[in-house]
Write a structure and sequence with these properties.
By secondary structure, this protein is mainly α. It has one domain. It has 4 helices and no strands. The two termini are about 30 Å apart.
Amino acid sequence: MTRILEHFTIEIELETMFDEPTVARLVKQVEETLQIGHAESNANEESIDELELLLQERGQSSENIEKELNKLNS
């Protein structure tokens, strides 16, 4: 179990192992978790792009843009 989770770099609660006791159900849970993570990653990338555009429109320097992006990523 640990090797699977480390390979996919995801976290699944131990309770899920008991709720989804078959390999097929566990695979489904891993796939769903990966899809959710992918959707969140896309949303974060879009937010960063929007922030970058807004700061550029307001005439912010590249240093200020970098600081704001670092705050967002923290």
